[in-house]
Structures are given as structure tokens and as C-alpha cells.
Amino acid sequence: IRCWSNIPFITMPLSRAHGKSFAHRSELKHAKRIVVKLGSAVVTRGDECGLALGRLASIVEQVSMLQNQGREMMIVTSGAVAFGKQRLRHEILLSQSVRQALHSGQSQLKDMAIPVLEARACAAAGQSGLMALYEAMFTQYSICAAQILVTNLDFHDEQKRRNLNGTLHELLRMNIVPIINTNDAVVPPPEPNSDLQGVNVISVKDNDSLAARLAVEMKTDLLIVLSDVEGLFDSPPGSDDAKLIDIFYPGDQQSVTFGTKSRVGMGGMEAKVKAALWALQGGTSVVIANGTHPKISGHVITDIVEGKKVGTFFSEVKPAGPTVEQQAEMARAGGRTLAALQPEQRAEIIYRLADLLTDQREDILLANKKDLEEAENKGRLALPLLKRLSLSTSKLNSLAIGLRQIAASSQDSVGRVIRRTRIAKDLDLEQVTVPIGVLLVIFESRPDCLPQVSALAIASGNGLLLKGGKEAAHSNQILHHLTQEALSIHGVRDAVQLVNTREEVEDLCRLDKLIDLIIPRGSSQLVRNIQKAAKGIPVMGHSEGICHVYVDTDASVEKVTRIIRDSKCEYPAACNALETLLIHRDLLRTPLFDQIIDMLRVEQVKIHAGPKFASYLTFSPSEVKSLRTEYGDLECCIEVVDSVQEAVEHIHKYGSSHTDVIITENEKSAEFFLQHVDSACVFWNASTRFSDGYRFGLGAEVGISTSRIHARGPVGIEGLLTTKWLLRGNNHVVSDFSEHGSMKYLHESLPLPQRNAS
């Protein structure tokens, strides 16, 4: 009698025509028929005696949800032996305790020995209880489950195979979830081993090939193999250099070193890979993932079906370019080489990029025209996003000027000494600026962001991963090509990478071992989603740009309309545009107030009235739905306050700590406002639109940060640097500075080296 693993993997089932598996994870959401294989390590508890009930309930919930979506779900499960072992041990202990209590007294109970339990007996005792548990759990979701027990011989008898196939199809037709397991009560035992203490284990590695066999027989779209490891690694998990393989291709086996099997079962990763490749050959997509991790097991199956980057995905289609993980590693290596260049060399790269923006203007605008035409034809982009998507000659000229500013100001950014201390004689400490590492910048509808951010990353010696919106694909492609052309003059082409694969933003945010900082550039919803998705990676940015302008009683008539017009109308889609206009109560029904309203009407700005403002009017504009609204268009809210103090309180309650302005000729009121408003940028008699890296003289910005650590406001080169400490000694040891040691701490501040005059 042969075991499952001896079934030839090159033999295709007669009833299965050669299909085509999904090429990309994003296509898995189209999977209709799905097999979920639950390994012994997933189903059993950590003590290997009994079932992991909470984990199993979570899996049933996910399978039920997918079943209720109209998918056809099947489960190949282990666990009968472990469940039976628990029941039999309980019965034996109970029986022994009664006998010993009658004949030997209670004092002998602790010396009871549990005999070796035969695996087939465990399976027989556990199979009915396991199925009863599944039935009870699925009943909670109004789903019926049916048990099917198979043996190896069932696949060698053509009639039995057809019967099995017909039974499964009929169950699926009736919206019943088949639960398939090997009939371990009658399967011949393998060679004795000590895999489970006290049990000669029935081979459960067979469930891997059983699941693959059933998946192909049933023409399944997706096979999910859940184990106790995250997926397939290029070397045994736990070893120093082990890396999770995101996508595994046929023929990659030579690059993988297989380790030992899991704590339970006979399946090992090598058996899973063989089964997965066989299923893939038969047209079924496969994902191997962790079903035991408490943080992800509650949604691992649904995450896989949604196309998220979970576990190892088996695909027959190799992408044309590198994976995003490879791109991140290339960016890190390129960034380190970039940081090692002389400042003048980094500046040369940025100057070259600035020249390319003007020299290749026609090609850039042609690519941008394609993006605009596609966006307009699809009709998916709102007008503010279309404006951000658009490039022009003047925009490119401004970009080039900004890049040259960055190049000129970046001469001493990396490696600058910011503190020197003499710790003791011949022991000097320095704190110097260094790059953060690898930056991930995610941006929407703003192709001009690409050269700006690239220049800042180059100037600060950081590796860079760029993920742009698909609406700007043509523009981003040519701008990235020009960036790499500029980088090539000093051999650091790989330092800036553009992610062109179908990576979801949420998946990128999980690369905590490859990315050091995430900078989102886009809508408030995008920023919030990234902040929520980022796992272990800091996010720098702002979720909203709710900027205020407060018009004080002592405001200049000449300044008010100019500043408000510029703040709201110059570029209403910008994050630093005015969204809420605060008016002092004494200015209502004055000529100045009328001028403000007339100007906004002329500029076709839609006005929303705040609650207090609406209460002063007989016929008011539409009342605002929320005072925390970022319109991003020719709309704004007007609200009334009684004092500069109330204006500050309103900003703190409803603002986003971005940019806020006071218009007044009263210096005392202005200073109160400047000192008390807790925002990244606070201005007096100046437009909110000045909150910008280029206008601040930073050359450009990677974004405007409203966080309270590291960097705040428009973030230029300085915000992309961190520091490290350099200690230069001469045979110094800490014990010399003890109470009876020969040396004493000096802690003298030393002068800093002269900065580059340029």
C-alpha cells in the first residue's frame, strides 16, 4: 500500500483539463472555488493534545463569510488524532483514578502512567468529535457542512474517484461546505516515531498532497495551505539570513534550503512545495501562509482572497522587472553609495536632473497629456485632482529652479557635525548628520512630486522607493527615467526606484525590515489609510490641511482681501489653501465684511456658514456640515468669533495643526496668536500659501508634517536626516572612570568645524 506522497506528481487527473492559474495576487479576488488545507499545527493546541478552538472558530468564520459571498469553499483538515488523543487520555485517567482510588488510596494518583496511545484508535475516537465541532461552528453562520473520509486507495480506483468527484460537486451545488480528511482509523500506520509524545502518528503530511489532488480534481481556482510558518523561506525559518519568498516560481527549488518539519504532522515544507507545484501545474493557484499567528490568523484567509501580500504565492508568470522587495534592497544599497559620494557629486546629479526637466520638456508634457486624456475619458478624477495631475511649462521651470536651490543648499547636509564633546583626555565624541535610510513616498495625481522628492533624497543621501498613482503612470515613467539618467553620471542609478508592480499600498506599508520612513503625499483619506496600515514604520505627514485665516478687528482693509483671495483662490486644491475664514464679530455688517463677501462671490467661491455666523443672518448660505472640512476646491466656511483668544480656541478644536494666519495691525494680538496657536506654521499678515518648502527656501519639500517629533512644517533636506554618534578614543575602558579609577570625565563642549560658506 502506497502513501499519499508516492502518488506521482507528474500524473494529471483524468477528469481535470489543463487550466490556467492566476498570474498575480490581485486576481485572487476572482477565485470562485477554494480549498483551505488546515495543517496539524493549525488545528491542534500548542500542547499537542486537543484542538485550538479559538483559532478554529476564526477559520470557520472566514470560510463562512467567503461561502456567503457566493464562493464554493472546501476544507481539508487534520486534527482527528489530536482530538481523539485528548478524549482517550481523559477516559484513561478517569478510569485509572477510580481504580486506584478504590485499591490504593488517593496518595497513589500522582504516580499514574499514561500508556502509549495507538494512533488509529485516537483517530477513531476523535473523528466524530472533530466533525461535530465543525458542524456546531458552521451552524452559527447558517451553513451546512458535510464530512468526507478518504483513503489512498480511493484515488487508485477509477469508479471511486468518479464517485468522490460527483459527491463533492453535488455538495457544492447545494451550498454545503465539504470537510475532507484521511480516514486515519483504517489507514496503515507509518514507521513508529516520536513526533507526538506517546503516539505513533498517522502520517499527516499526506494532507498536503491530498489537498493538492482534490484541488486539481475539482478544478479549484485557489488552494490555501495554512501551516505554522509565514510561508516559504529561502532558508530554514529562524536562520539569520532567512527571507520570506513573496512569489515562488516553478524551477526555483534549487534556490531554497528546506529545514525540518513543523512540531506536529509529517508534512514539512518540502512536501508542501511539491504539492503546491503539482496543483499549480494543474491550473490551481496556491498560497502557503501562517494559520497560527494570533495577529493575522483572524483574517489570513480573507486577506489572501483579497489579494493582500500574505504568505508565499505560487505563480507560473515571472514579472519582467524586480520585485518590490528587491527594489527596496537596491534602493538601500544605492542610497549608501549615494551617501558616500562627495557633496559636490550629489549636487551635480541634482543640477543634471534640473537641466533634463527643461531639456526634455516636450516629451514630459506629451506623456502628461496622455495621462490627462485617459483621466478625462474615464471620468474618475475630481477637478482638484485633475489640476494636480496637470503639468505645464511654467511648472517645469519652477521645478528646475527649486531643484537648483536644493543642489546649492545641500553641500554640507550629510556628515555635518552638530555637536562635539570632549568626554575625557583623548576621548572625543561627535554627533553627525546621516541619511535616514530608505524612504517610501506614496503620492497621488502629482507627477511634479517625483523630481522634487528625488532631489531631496539625493541631497540627503537616502535611498528612495516611489509609488505613484496609476492616473499619472506615463508622467511618472518619464520623470523617473530622467531621474535615473541623472543618477547614472555617478553610478548610483538604483538609488531611486519607481514601483510599477501591482503592489497594494497596504502591502508596501508592511515592509518594516526594508523601509525606514513612509511619506504620503495626497488626500487626507490616503494619509489616514497609510497611517493605519503602517506596521512598525513611522509615517511623516498630515492627514488634513484645514487651514484658517482669522480677520481681527484691527485688520488692514488693503491686506484682507488680497491675503484671503490668495489663500483660497490661488490654488484651492493645495493642502495649504484656506478652508475656514474666521471673522471677528465686530466686523459683521461693515464695509470690510462686504468687501470680503463680494470678492469671494466674484471668485465663485461657495460659502458655507458656521453655526454662529448663520445665527446672525436672516438668509444665510448653506450651514456647514462639519467645521473640520477640507474642501480642496473653491469652497470655504465662514465662522464668527468674539476675540483673538476665541479664534485660537476654535483653531485648536477644529484645525489640523497645518497652517493658520492672523490678519491684523495690532502687534500685541498678532504676537498672542503666533505664540499660542499650536500649528506647524503660524503666519501674521501673509497668505497660507507660503507654507511650502520652495517658498521657505528649502528648494522643495517631501511634504508638510503636522507631527510633533522629528520634523514639522514643510520638510526639506533637514527633515530627511537623522544623526549618529562617533567616539574616537585611545584604549579607553569604562572601569578607568570608576570611583577608584585613574580617569575623570571632562564633558567639555568643543567648537564645531567651520560650515561650507556656500
UniProtKB/TrEMBL annotation:
GO terms for molecular function: ATP binding; glutamate 5-kinase activity; glutamate-5-semialdehyde dehydrogenase activity. CDD domains: AAK_P5CS_ProBA (cd04256), ALDH_F18-19_ProA-GPR (cd07079). It catalyses: L-glutamate + ATP = L-glutamyl 5-phosphate + ADP; L-glutamate 5-semialdehyde + phosphate + NADP(+) = L-glutamyl 5-phosphate + NADPH + H(+). HAMAP family: ProA (MF_00412), ProB (MF_00456). It is found in: Mitochondrion matrix. Its main location: mitochondrion. Gene3D superfamilies: Acetylglutamate kinase-like, Aldehyde Dehydrogenase, Chain A, domain 1, Aldehyde Dehydrogenase, Chain A, domain 2. This is Delta-1-pyrroline-5-carboxylate synthase. Residues 32-290 form the Aspartate/glutamate/uridylate kinase domain. One of its GO terms (cellular component) is mitochondrial matrix. Residues 323-588 form the Aldehyde dehydrogenase domain. Can form homodimers/multimers. Bifunctional enzyme that converts glutamate to glutamate 5-semialdehyde, an intermediate in the biosynthesis of proline, ornithine and arginine. GO terms for biological process: L-proline biosynthetic process.
